[in-house]
Design a protein that fits this description.
With about 800 residues, the protein is an alpha+beta fold. The protein contains 15 helices and 50 strands. The chain has five domains: about 130 residues, Bulb-type lectin domain (Agglutinin, subunit A); about 140 residues, Agglutinin, subunit A, CATH 2.90.10; about 140 residues, no CATH class; about 100 residues, 2-Layer Sandwich (Phosphorylase Kinase, domain 1), CATH 3.30.200.20; about 200 residues, Orthogonal Bundle (Transferase(Phosphotransferase), domain 1), CATH 1.10.510.10. The strands form 14 sheets. Strands 38-39-43-44-42-41-40 form a seven-stranded mixed β-sheet, sandwiched between helices. The longest helix is centred in the middle third of the chain and has 32 residues. The radius of gyration is 31 Å and the shape is elongated. Belongs to the protein kinase superfamily. Ser/Thr protein kinase family. It comes from Eucalyptus globulus (Tasmanian blue gum). GO terms for molecular function: ATP binding; carbohydrate binding; protein serine/threonine kinase activity.
């Protein structure tokens, strides 16, 4: 009997405790809901839907409707995304205006603006519709007639109804896209601001003059009818039983209209699945290629390009061009800005040699052309863009060359685009000269302002500290811990729990090495801010040194061709490193895969790696020898820019030190001879490894290949010098049409590689000199005969 009573208590106590937070039934005149930690809400009779406050962050609340019985508590309607309600805010049912949302000081944040009399109560219905009704149960106002970004089964949209996407996944303010049933009967998708002409729609039913009502029926079908109820257009047409699945159709923040289902099973945690079949698909099916408007940014912002994801949802992703960075780091869809000074148009100071063209296959901006030339070669197209100060990108396809200027719009990367984009980037990546002049003129004024602000800030912080201290002594407040920044490296310190959450329990492994594994994670909003989290497997003396070495080496570097360390965790037995996520994987995958990368892209990658190594050896605060340069440690970002990774074997050099002694490190095949001869190790070991890597980039195959059809080609450096010595460099790239047409560059790269792999470290050039030779700033002298070739003849 005692156990039975205890069981009843265990059920009743939670219900009693949550009675204030979640009430069933109606909200009567004068009553209110309060925004607090309990997320106070009003439930529908079945408990499937809730209306009330959802906590969106520290002290911020959203007035919303959501699915209550599923783990995600998915929001389907909200009103104050642009002005979140602080703790203690109330939504009250009033006789003259209906619902009124006010903050604790009485400031109105939102109201239903009810234009009717006789209001008696508000109710959350089992359909997901929230209504204001009279005593005789006549609906005076309802949420179904005022949708935000989602529609539900039984919901209908009449003429001039608008569904508006939110800003981002977790930001419920208004976004860039709208789904409208126009008064002329056409159902369209627009990118805001609302255009003036129908041709600016990126999807439409073409039912002008006939369309009348959009219906989401109980069978899970979304379709458009005329005034007589005749079917005009099926937006989604799969029949899904509402008795088994929850359903919603939403215009998402990426501009795509999708339909989702979720099992109604008790405690189901399977999540929402998108309805997709031969007849039901997202609208539009590929927004990246659907955006072709003459005005506006396209699917992504200006100076970016759109790619379609490879998961079931195929959510589009937005990426910056090489040499460009996001305008808003929290929202990749807002476009990118140029990170370098544009090319000067002063003919007395030509800058043609200050720029390179970064190649991007199947990438285009169709609405940004200002000049087109036909019957041209790619070489002509390249030179024409480099010589034109207005040209930001050249696009070459089918012997046609298009020049494009910024801002670039409607960007997409898709196999259907074809051709290749050639993006102009300044070699030294310098900042704007124009702003530099203005900065010099206002330097003294700026310093005075900064000093004043700093002084005021110090006084304010001191006063604030005193207030917080006294307040915390007198009242039991708990403050959030501030973000911890490591002073030595300037990187953020994360807790193990934060990184476990970010990686979903270390779910998706990206790779594995001798000291640990790397996992994909996300910091902040879902599907943005991707990171790579490296986890050291065990805490031994060696792994502790490995961890300290990598944090020290990577944390003090800052170069576009080095992978950025964002933070780390050093907590108990846990040692983790947080890096920027490189979406195109390693150079090994790119170079030795099923399809050969283009010749120009391989040359660009060689220059990227050389610049990164030159920075490590000579420019960063503490000079660094990487010690393990190989294709697996060169990663590629979304723009195929190469970045050097894995500083786990790095050796730091003091300012007055040029060589060091250490045990053998690195990967066989890329190791310089001095590793095996008990010789002091210098930065020239990286030069040797780079030489092997450069040979692999030239020939697009591994340095050591047992399966080579010709025995002389098993060790590629032997074969490369043999071809160079015999004057037959063309044999190295004879199956590569692009490289064959650029044989002078092929020979230049071969000569540089042969200099880099000299057995005597003193004969190898520095990486700075190597970079200059690659960029054509200095001539490449004839390389000496390497000892390995001498012994083989």
């Amino acid at each position: 009997m005692a156990s039975a009573i205890l069981g009843i208590l265990l059920v009743l106590v939670p219900l009693l405790l949550s009675a204030e937070a979640q009430a069933r039934g109606n909200l009567t005149l004068g009553n209110s809901l309060t925004a607090n930690d309990q997320n106070s809400s009003l439930l529908s009779l079945s408990g499937e839907f809730a209306f009330g406050f959802r906590k969106m962050g520290q002290g911020a609340h959203l007035l919303a409707i959501w699915f209550e019985m599923i783990e995600e508590k998915t929001i389907v309607w909200s009103v104050n995304g642009d002005d979140l309600a602080p703790e203690g805010s109330k939504v009250q049912l009033t006789a003259n205006r209906g619902l009124v949302l006010t903050d604790p000081r009485g400031r109105e944040l939102w109201s239903s603006n009810l234009n009717a009399t006789g209001l008696a109560y508000a109710a959350m219905l089992d359909t997901g519709n929230f209504i204001l009704a009279s005593a005789s149960h006549v609906n005076l106002w309802d949420s179904f007639s005022r949708p935000t970004d989602t529609i539900l089964p039984t919901q209908q949209l009449d003429l001039d109804a608008v569904v508006r996407a939110r800003y981002s996944e977790m930001n419920y303010s208004n976004g860039r896209f709208i789904f409208r049933l126009q008064t002329d009967g056409n159902l369209v998708l627009y990118a805001t601001p609302t255009p003036l002409v129908v041709s600016d729609a990126y999807w439409a039913t073409g039912t002008r003059g006939n369309g009348f009502r959009l219906i989401f029926n109980q069978s899970g079908q979304v379709y458009l009818t005329d005034r007589n109820g005749k079917l005009l257009n099926k937006v989604t047409s799969d029949e899904v039983p509402t008795s088994v699945f929850y359903q919603r159709a939403i215009l998402e923040y990426d501009g795509v209209f999708r339909q989702y289902i979720h099992p109604k099973m008790a405690n189901s945690s399977s999540g929402w699945a998108m309805v997709w079949s031969m007849v039901s698909s997202p609208v539009p099916s590929n927004i990246c290629t659907s955006m072709n408007r003459d005005t506006g940014t396209g699917a992504c912002g200006f100076n970016s390009y759109c790619t379609r994801g490879d998961d079931q949802i195929q959510r589009p992703r937005c990426h910056c061009l090489p040499g460009y960075t996001l305008l808003d780091s929290t929202n990749e869809m807002n476009g990118c800005r140029q990170d370098f000074a544009p090319q000067s148009c002063d003919e007395s100071k030509p800058e043609t040699d200050q720029f390179v063209l970064r190649e991007m296959l199947n990438t285009g901006w169709p609405m940004s052309n200002y000049e087109r030339s036909e019957s041209q070669t790619e070489h002509w197209c390249r030179q024409a863009c480099l010589a034109d100060c207005f040209c930001a990108v050249a696009f070459f396809k089918d012997r046609k060359c298009w020049k494009k200027r910024t801002p670039l719009s409607n960007g997409r990367m898709d196999p259907g685009v074809g051709g290749k984009a050639l993006v102009k980037v300044r070699i030294n990546n310098s900042t704007s000269k124009a702003t530099g002049n203005r900065q010099k003129k206002s330097k003294n004024l700026t310093l005075m302002i900064i000093e004043s602000v700093l002084l005021s800030s110090c006084v304010f912080v001191s006063l604030l500290t005193c207030v917080i201290y006294r307040s915390s002594r007198s009242r039991d407040y708990k403050f959030l811990q501030p973000v911890q920044i490591n002073q030595a490296t300037g990187t953020r310190t994360y807790t193990y729990w934060e990184l476990q959450e970010a990686t979903d329990g270390f779910k998706e492994e990206l790779g594995r090495g001798a000291f640990g594994a790397v996992y994909k994670g996300v910091l902040g909003s879902k599907d943005t801010n991707f990171v790579a989290v490296k986890v050291l497997m065990a805490w031994t003396g060696e792994s502790e040194k490995e961890f300290e070495r990598e944090v020290s080496a990577t944390g003090q570097t800052n170069h576009k061709n080095l992978m950025q360390l964002l933070g780390f965790c050093n907590e108990g037995q846990h040692r983790l490193l947080v890096y920027e996520f490189m979406s195109n994987g390693s150079l090994a995958d790119f170079l030795f895969g099923s399809s050969r990368p283009s010749w120009y892209k391989r040359v660009e990658i060689a220059c990227d790696v050389a610049r990164g190594l030159s920075y490590l050896h000579e420019e960063c605060t503490r000079h660094i020898i990487h010690c393990d340069i190989k294709p697996q440690n060169i990663l590629l970002d979304g723009s195929l820019t190469a970045k050097i990774s894995d500083f786990g074997l790095a050796k730091l050099l003091m300012a007055n030190q040029t060589r060091t002694t250490t045990g053998v490190r690195g990967t066989r095949g890329y190791l310089a001879p001095e590793w095996f001869r008990n010789m002091p190790i210098s930065s020239k070991v990286d030069v040797y490894s780079f030489g092997i890597l450069l040979v692999e980039l030239i020939c697009c195959r591994k340095n050591y290949e047992l399966k080579a059809e010709i025995e002389a080609q098993i060790v590629m450096v032997d074969w490369v010098y043999n071809c160079y010595h015999n004057g037959s460099v063309l044999q190295l790239v004879e199956s590569d049409e692009e490289a064959s047409r650029d044989i002078k560059m092929v020979k230049r790269l071969v000569m540089i590689a042969l200099w880099c792999i000299q057995e005597d470290p003193a004969l190898r050039p520095t990486m700075k000199k190597t970079t200059q030779m690659l960029e054509g700033a200095v001539e490449v002298p004839v390389p000496p005969v390497p000892s390995f070739f001498t012994t083989s003849i």
